[in-house]
Amino acid sequence: MSQPAAKLPFWVDFGLIPLLNLVAAFAVAGLVVAVIGENPLDVARIIIYGAFGYGEGVGFTLFYATNFIFTGLAVAVAFHAGLFNIGGEGQAYIGGLGVALVALGLDPYLPWWLLAPLAVIGAALFGALWAYIPAVLQAKRGSHIVITTIMFNFIAASLMAYLLVDVLNPGAGSMSPGTRFFNAEAVPPRLSEILAPFGVDLGGSPANLSLIVALLAALGLWLLLWRTRLGYEIRALGHNASAAAYAGVPIARVIVIAMLISGALAGMMALNPVLGDQGRLLLEFPGGAGFVGIAVALMGRSHPLGVILAALLFGMLYQGGSELAFEKPSISRDMLILIQGLVILFSGALENLFRPAVARIFAPRAA
Protein backbone atom coordinates (compact mmCIF):
# COMPACT_ATOMS: atom_id res chain seq x y z
CA MET A 1 0.00 0.00 0.00
CA SER A 2 1.36 3.42 -0.92
CA GLN A 3 2.19 5.83 1.85
CA PRO A 4 0.18 9.06 2.08
CA ALA A 5 2.00 12.20 1.05
CA ALA A 6 3.62 13.97 3.98
CA LYS A 7 2.37 17.45 4.77
CA LEU A 8 4.91 20.07 3.82
CA PRO A 9 5.60 23.24 5.84
CA PHE A 10 3.39 26.16 4.88
CA TRP A 11 6.25 28.25 3.48
CA VAL A 12 7.36 25.33 1.29
CA ASP A 13 3.90 24.45 -0.02
CA PHE A 14 2.77 28.03 -0.65
CA GLY A 15 6.11 29.74 -1.21
CA LEU A 16 9.00 27.59 -2.36
CA ILE A 17 7.17 25.30 -4.80
CA PRO A 18 5.32 28.14 -6.61
CA LEU A 19 8.64 30.02 -6.76
CA LEU A 20 10.36 27.02 -8.38
CA ASN A 21 7.52 26.74 -10.88
CA LEU A 22 7.85 30.44 -11.66
CA VAL A 23 11.62 30.22 -12.14
CA ALA A 24 11.16 27.26 -14.48
CA ALA A 25 8.53 29.15 -16.49
CA PHE A 26 10.78 32.19 -16.90
CA ALA A 27 13.76 30.00 -17.74
CA VAL A 28 11.86 28.39 -20.63
CA ALA A 29 10.57 31.82 -21.70
CA GLY A 30 14.14 33.10 -21.65
CA LEU A 31 15.20 30.31 -24.00
CA VAL A 32 12.42 31.29 -26.41
CA VAL A 33 13.51 34.93 -26.26
CA ALA A 34 17.09 33.90 -26.95
CA VAL A 35 15.99 31.84 -29.97
CA ILE A 36 14.42 34.91 -31.61
CA GLY A 37 17.69 36.80 -31.13
CA GLU A 38 17.01 38.94 -28.05
CA ASN A 39 18.87 39.06 -24.75
CA PRO A 40 16.69 37.44 -22.03
CA LEU A 41 18.32 39.50 -19.27
CA ASP A 42 17.66 42.71 -21.17
CA VAL A 43 14.03 41.70 -21.68
CA ALA A 44 13.66 40.90 -17.97
CA ARG A 45 15.18 44.27 -17.05
CA ILE A 46 12.70 46.13 -19.27
CA ILE A 47 9.72 44.24 -17.85
CA ILE A 48 10.75 44.81 -14.24
CA TYR A 49 11.57 48.47 -14.80
CA GLY A 50 8.34 49.04 -16.71
CA ALA A 51 6.34 47.57 -13.83
CA PHE A 52 8.21 48.88 -10.77
CA GLY A 53 10.89 51.30 -11.95
CA TYR A 54 8.88 54.53 -11.82
CA GLY A 55 5.71 55.79 -10.18
CA GLU A 56 3.31 55.63 -13.09
CA GLY A 57 4.44 52.10 -13.93
CA VAL A 58 3.81 51.04 -10.33
CA GLY A 59 0.35 52.58 -10.52
CA PHE A 60 -0.56 50.67 -13.67
CA THR A 61 0.81 47.45 -12.16
CA LEU A 62 -1.43 47.94 -9.11
CA PHE A 63 -4.38 48.73 -11.37
CA TYR A 64 -4.03 45.47 -13.29
CA ALA A 65 -3.31 43.53 -10.10
CA THR A 66 -6.55 44.81 -8.55
CA ASN A 67 -8.57 43.17 -11.32
CA PHE A 68 -6.70 39.92 -10.89
CA ILE A 69 -7.07 39.88 -7.11
CA PHE A 70 -10.86 39.96 -7.44
CA THR A 71 -11.06 37.30 -10.14
CA GLY A 72 -8.36 35.18 -8.51
CA LEU A 73 -10.25 35.16 -5.22
CA ALA A 74 -13.43 34.25 -7.11
CA VAL A 75 -11.78 31.20 -8.65
CA ALA A 76 -10.03 30.30 -5.39
CA VAL A 77 -13.18 30.08 -3.28
CA ALA A 78 -14.78 27.85 -5.92
CA PHE A 79 -11.64 25.68 -5.95
CA HIS A 80 -11.94 25.20 -2.20
CA ALA A 81 -15.45 23.82 -2.75
CA GLY A 82 -14.22 21.47 -5.46
CA LEU A 83 -15.79 23.64 -8.18
CA PHE A 84 -14.17 25.11 -11.29
CA ASN A 85 -15.74 28.49 -11.96
CA ILE A 86 -14.72 29.59 -15.45
CA GLY A 87 -17.48 32.17 -15.55
CA GLY A 88 -15.58 35.00 -13.88
CA GLU A 89 -15.51 36.97 -17.12
CA GLY A 90 -19.28 36.92 -17.46
CA GLN A 91 -19.86 37.54 -13.77
CA ALA A 92 -17.55 40.57 -13.91
CA TYR A 93 -19.48 41.78 -16.96
CA ILE A 94 -22.80 41.61 -15.14
CA GLY A 95 -21.17 43.08 -12.02
CA GLY A 96 -20.32 46.09 -14.17
CA LEU A 97 -24.00 46.42 -14.96
CA GLY A 98 -24.72 46.56 -11.22
CA VAL A 99 -22.11 49.29 -10.74
CA ALA A 100 -23.44 51.28 -13.68
CA LEU A 101 -27.08 51.12 -12.58
CA VAL A 102 -26.16 52.37 -9.11
CA ALA A 103 -24.00 55.18 -10.49
CA LEU A 104 -26.43 56.24 -13.22
CA GLY A 105 -29.32 56.32 -10.79
CA LEU A 106 -27.65 57.99 -7.82
CA ASP A 107 -24.72 60.06 -9.10
CA PRO A 108 -26.79 63.29 -9.23
CA TYR A 109 -27.55 62.96 -5.52
CA LEU A 110 -24.66 61.23 -3.71
CA PRO A 111 -20.95 62.02 -3.32
CA TRP A 112 -18.46 59.28 -4.13
CA TRP A 113 -17.94 58.23 -0.51
CA LEU A 114 -21.64 57.35 -0.22
CA LEU A 115 -22.09 56.02 -3.73
CA ALA A 116 -19.01 53.76 -3.73
CA PRO A 117 -20.28 51.38 -0.96
CA LEU A 118 -23.57 51.05 -2.82
CA ALA A 119 -21.64 50.31 -6.02
CA VAL A 120 -19.73 47.58 -4.19
CA ILE A 121 -23.05 46.03 -3.14
CA GLY A 122 -24.45 46.36 -6.66
CA ALA A 123 -21.40 44.72 -8.24
CA ALA A 124 -21.38 41.86 -5.74
CA LEU A 125 -25.13 41.31 -5.99
CA PHE A 126 -25.26 41.22 -9.79
CA GLY A 127 -22.18 38.99 -10.02
CA ALA A 128 -23.63 36.60 -7.46
CA LEU A 129 -26.96 36.45 -9.28
CA TRP A 130 -25.20 35.59 -12.53
CA ALA A 131 -23.43 32.70 -10.77
CA TYR A 132 -26.64 31.52 -9.09
CA ILE A 133 -28.16 29.69 -12.06
CA PRO A 134 -25.04 27.58 -12.84
CA ALA A 135 -24.76 26.88 -9.10
CA VAL A 136 -28.33 25.60 -8.86
CA LEU A 137 -27.93 23.54 -12.02
CA GLN A 138 -24.83 21.93 -10.51
CA ALA A 139 -26.35 21.38 -7.07
CA LYS A 140 -29.83 20.25 -8.09
CA ARG A 141 -29.50 18.82 -11.61
CA GLY A 142 -25.90 17.67 -11.78
CA SER A 143 -25.02 19.95 -14.69
CA HIS A 144 -21.27 20.40 -14.94
CA ILE A 145 -20.25 23.77 -13.54
CA VAL A 146 -17.47 24.19 -16.12
CA ILE A 147 -19.86 23.92 -19.06
CA THR A 148 -22.57 26.16 -17.62
CA THR A 149 -20.21 28.92 -16.49
CA ILE A 150 -18.46 28.97 -19.87
CA MET A 151 -21.79 29.30 -21.66
CA PHE A 152 -22.91 32.06 -19.31
CA ASN A 153 -19.84 34.06 -20.37
CA PHE A 154 -21.21 34.19 -23.91
CA ILE A 155 -24.70 35.01 -22.69
CA ALA A 156 -23.34 37.86 -20.56
CA ALA A 157 -21.36 39.27 -23.51
CA SER A 158 -24.41 39.19 -25.77
CA LEU A 159 -26.65 40.71 -23.10
CA MET A 160 -24.22 43.55 -22.43
CA ALA A 161 -23.82 44.27 -26.15
CA TYR A 162 -27.59 44.62 -26.47
CA LEU A 163 -27.91 46.81 -23.37
CA LEU A 164 -25.03 49.13 -24.24
CA VAL A 165 -26.11 49.57 -27.85
CA ASP A 166 -29.90 49.75 -27.57
CA VAL A 167 -30.82 50.51 -23.95
CA LEU A 168 -28.14 52.34 -21.93
CA ASN A 169 -26.45 54.20 -24.78
CA PRO A 170 -26.90 57.97 -24.36
CA GLY A 171 -27.65 58.31 -28.07
CA ALA A 172 -26.57 61.25 -30.18
CA GLY A 173 -22.89 62.13 -29.96
CA SER A 174 -21.79 58.75 -28.64
CA MET A 175 -19.13 57.08 -30.80
CA SER A 176 -18.92 53.75 -28.94
CA PRO A 177 -21.28 51.36 -27.16
CA GLY A 178 -21.46 52.51 -23.56
CA THR A 179 -23.31 54.56 -21.00
CA ARG A 180 -22.93 58.25 -20.32
CA PHE A 181 -20.10 59.39 -18.08
CA PHE A 182 -20.83 59.36 -14.36
CA ASN A 183 -20.79 62.71 -12.55
CA ALA A 184 -17.26 63.61 -11.48
CA GLU A 185 -18.36 63.97 -7.85
CA ALA A 186 -19.51 60.33 -7.85
CA VAL A 187 -16.17 58.89 -9.05
CA PRO A 188 -13.71 57.95 -6.26
CA PRO A 189 -10.33 59.71 -6.27
CA ARG A 190 -7.38 57.88 -7.72
CA LEU A 191 -4.50 56.72 -5.55
CA SER A 192 -2.26 59.28 -7.24
CA GLU A 193 -4.46 62.07 -5.84
CA ILE A 194 -4.56 60.54 -2.36
CA LEU A 195 -0.83 59.81 -2.11
CA ALA A 196 0.47 62.98 -3.78
CA PRO A 197 0.51 65.00 -0.50
CA PHE A 198 2.82 62.31 0.96
CA GLY A 199 5.32 62.65 -1.86
CA VAL A 200 4.25 59.48 -3.71
CA ASP A 201 4.00 60.08 -7.45
CA LEU A 202 1.93 57.54 -9.39
CA GLY A 203 1.67 59.78 -12.43
CA GLY A 204 -1.46 59.43 -14.52
CA SER A 205 -2.06 55.79 -13.60
CA PRO A 206 -5.67 54.66 -13.08
CA ALA A 207 -5.01 52.87 -9.76
CA ASN A 208 -7.82 53.74 -7.39
CA LEU A 209 -9.49 52.81 -4.10
CA SER A 210 -10.71 49.53 -5.59
CA LEU A 211 -7.30 48.17 -4.56
CA ILE A 212 -8.24 48.69 -0.90
CA VAL A 213 -11.56 46.91 -1.49
CA ALA A 214 -9.70 44.00 -3.11
CA LEU A 215 -7.31 43.65 -0.16
CA LEU A 216 -10.23 43.76 2.29
CA ALA A 217 -11.99 41.10 0.21
CA ALA A 218 -8.89 38.89 0.46
CA LEU A 219 -8.81 39.33 4.24
CA GLY A 220 -12.53 38.61 4.47
CA LEU A 221 -12.19 35.45 2.39
CA TRP A 222 -9.36 34.20 4.58
CA LEU A 223 -11.47 34.74 7.70
CA LEU A 224 -14.43 33.03 6.05
CA LEU A 225 -12.55 29.95 4.88
CA TRP A 226 -10.41 29.33 7.95
CA ARG A 227 -12.32 30.91 10.83
CA THR A 228 -15.98 30.05 10.23
CA ARG A 229 -18.15 26.96 10.13
CA LEU A 230 -19.24 27.75 6.57
CA GLY A 231 -15.61 27.96 5.49
CA TYR A 232 -14.93 24.58 7.06
CA GLU A 233 -17.90 23.10 5.20
CA ILE A 234 -16.66 24.60 1.91
CA ARG A 235 -13.18 23.16 2.38
CA ALA A 236 -14.56 19.80 3.53
CA LEU A 237 -16.68 19.61 0.39
CA GLY A 238 -13.65 20.34 -1.75
CA HIS A 239 -11.49 17.72 -0.04
CA ASN A 240 -14.00 14.88 -0.16
CA ALA A 241 -17.65 15.35 -1.06
CA SER A 242 -18.68 11.88 0.11
CA ALA A 243 -17.04 12.31 3.50
CA ALA A 244 -18.52 15.79 3.84
CA ALA A 245 -22.01 14.45 3.11
CA TYR A 246 -21.50 11.63 5.62
CA ALA A 247 -20.48 14.23 8.22
CA GLY A 248 -23.71 16.13 7.68
CA VAL A 249 -22.56 18.92 5.37
CA PRO A 250 -25.53 20.08 3.23
CA ILE A 251 -23.83 19.59 -0.13
CA ALA A 252 -26.31 21.40 -2.37
CA ARG A 253 -26.53 24.41 -0.08
CA VAL A 254 -22.76 24.75 0.26
CA ILE A 255 -22.30 24.49 -3.52
CA VAL A 256 -24.77 27.32 -4.10
CA ILE A 257 -23.28 29.50 -1.36
CA ALA A 258 -19.71 28.96 -2.57
CA MET A 259 -20.69 29.91 -6.11
CA LEU A 260 -22.59 32.96 -4.90
CA ILE A 261 -19.47 34.14 -3.06
CA SER A 262 -17.36 33.39 -6.12
CA GLY A 263 -19.71 35.31 -8.41
CA ALA A 264 -19.85 38.24 -6.01
CA LEU A 265 -16.05 38.51 -5.92
CA ALA A 266 -15.84 38.33 -9.71
CA GLY A 267 -18.56 40.96 -10.02
CA MET A 268 -16.64 43.30 -7.73
CA MET A 269 -13.82 43.34 -10.26
CA ALA A 270 -15.98 45.79 -12.24
CA LEU A 271 -15.45 48.46 -9.59
CA ASN A 272 -11.88 48.98 -10.72
CA PRO A 273 -12.36 49.76 -14.44
CA VAL A 274 -15.97 50.97 -14.47
CA LEU A 275 -16.18 53.24 -11.42
CA GLY A 276 -12.51 53.82 -10.69
CA ASP A 277 -11.05 54.34 -14.17
CA GLN A 278 -13.47 54.80 -17.09
CA GLY A 279 -16.22 56.57 -15.16
CA ARG A 280 -18.73 54.82 -17.40
CA LEU A 281 -19.71 51.31 -18.53
CA LEU A 282 -18.08 50.27 -21.81
CA LEU A 283 -18.19 47.13 -23.91
CA GLU A 284 -15.62 44.41 -23.15
CA PHE A 285 -14.23 46.19 -20.10
CA PRO A 286 -13.15 42.95 -18.28
CA GLY A 287 -10.41 42.45 -20.87
CA GLY A 288 -9.89 38.77 -20.06
CA ALA A 289 -9.37 39.31 -16.33
CA GLY A 290 -11.83 36.52 -15.54
CA PHE A 291 -9.64 33.99 -17.30
CA VAL A 292 -6.40 35.37 -15.85
CA GLY A 293 -8.00 34.82 -12.44
CA ILE A 294 -7.80 31.07 -13.05
CA ALA A 295 -4.03 31.27 -13.45
CA VAL A 296 -3.77 33.58 -10.44
CA ALA A 297 -5.69 31.14 -8.24
CA LEU A 298 -3.60 28.20 -9.45
CA MET A 299 -0.33 29.98 -8.83
CA GLY A 300 -1.50 31.36 -5.50
CA ARG A 301 -2.51 27.86 -4.35
CA SER A 302 -6.04 29.23 -3.74
CA HIS A 303 -4.81 31.05 -0.64
CA PRO A 304 -5.76 34.76 -0.39
CA LEU A 305 -2.17 35.83 0.28
CA GLY A 306 -0.92 33.72 -2.61
CA VAL A 307 -3.62 35.20 -4.84
CA ILE A 308 -2.43 38.74 -4.00
CA LEU A 309 1.19 37.89 -4.82
CA ALA A 310 0.24 36.07 -8.03
CA ALA A 311 -1.97 39.01 -9.05
CA LEU A 312 1.01 41.35 -8.60
CA LEU A 313 3.07 39.05 -10.82
CA PHE A 314 0.50 39.13 -13.61
CA GLY A 315 0.07 42.87 -13.13
CA MET A 316 3.82 43.15 -13.63
CA LEU A 317 3.63 41.07 -16.81
CA TYR A 318 0.82 43.22 -18.20
CA GLN A 319 2.43 46.57 -17.43
CA GLY A 320 6.02 45.49 -18.06
CA GLY A 321 4.89 43.81 -21.26
CA SER A 322 3.45 47.09 -22.52
CA GLU A 323 6.81 48.76 -21.94
CA LEU A 324 8.56 45.86 -23.64
CA ALA A 325 6.41 46.25 -26.75
CA PHE A 326 7.73 49.83 -27.11
CA GLU A 327 11.35 49.00 -26.37
CA LYS A 328 11.57 45.76 -28.35
CA PRO A 329 9.34 45.81 -31.44
CA SER A 330 10.65 42.36 -32.39
CA ILE A 331 8.86 40.94 -29.34
CA SER A 332 5.18 40.95 -30.15
CA ARG A 333 2.18 40.74 -27.84
CA ASP A 334 2.04 37.04 -28.67
CA MET A 335 5.39 36.58 -26.93
CA LEU A 336 3.96 38.08 -23.75
CA ILE A 337 0.98 35.72 -24.00
CA LEU A 338 3.49 32.88 -24.35
CA ILE A 339 5.21 33.93 -21.12
CA GLN A 340 1.86 34.07 -19.32
CA GLY A 341 0.98 30.67 -20.77
CA LEU A 342 4.24 29.18 -19.47
CA VAL A 343 3.50 30.53 -16.00
CA ILE A 344 0.06 28.92 -16.17
CA LEU A 345 1.54 25.67 -17.48
CA PHE A 346 4.13 25.31 -14.74
CA SER A 347 1.79 26.56 -12.01
CA GLY A 348 -1.14 24.41 -13.10
CA ALA A 349 -0.53 21.40 -15.29
CA LEU A 350 3.05 20.90 -14.05
CA GLU A 351 2.40 21.98 -10.46
CA ASN A 352 3.78 18.68 -9.13
CA LEU A 353 6.94 18.80 -11.25
CA PHE A 354 9.19 19.76 -8.33
CA ARG A 355 7.01 18.56 -5.45
CA PRO A 356 8.41 14.98 -5.15
CA ALA A 357 11.99 16.23 -4.90
CA VAL A 358 11.08 19.02 -2.50
CA ALA A 359 9.06 16.58 -0.38
CA ARG A 360 12.06 14.27 -0.01
CA ILE A 361 14.00 17.19 1.44
CA PHE A 362 11.42 18.81 3.70
CA ALA A 363 8.85 16.10 4.52
CA PRO A 364 11.02 14.39 7.21
CA ARG A 365 11.46 17.74 8.96
CA ALA A 366 7.72 18.37 8.73
CA ALA A 367 7.05 14.97 10.27
Number of strands: 0
Q: Sheet bearing the most strands, described? A: none
Radius of gyration: 21 Å
Global outline: globular
Strand percentage lies at under 5%
Structural class: mainly alpha
How far is the N terminus from the C terminus? 19 Å
Mean pLDDT: 90
Please describe the topology of this protein.
Layout lengths: L9 H26 L4 H13 L2 H26 L7 H19 L5 H30 L3 H23 L23 H5 L14 H18 L1 H11 L1 H6 L4 H18 L2 H8 L10 H11 L4 H24 L5 H17 L5 H12 L1
Helix pairs in contact: 1-15, 2-3, 2-14, 3-8, 3-11, 3-13, 3-14, 4-5, 4-6, 4-11, 4-13, 5-6, 5-11, 8-9, 8-14, 9-11, 13-14, 13-15, 14-15
What does this structure look like?
- With 367 residues, the chain is mainly α.
- The chain has a domain at 61-295.
- Helix content is 73%, strand content 0%.
- The longest helix has 30 residues, at 112-141.
- The protein is globular and about 65 Å long.
- The relative contact order is 0.21.
- The model has no long low-confidence stretch (mean pLDDT 90).
Give a brief outline of the structure.
The chain is mainly α and 367 residues long.
List keywords for this structure.
globular, single chain, 16 helices, mainly alpha, 367 residues, 73% helix
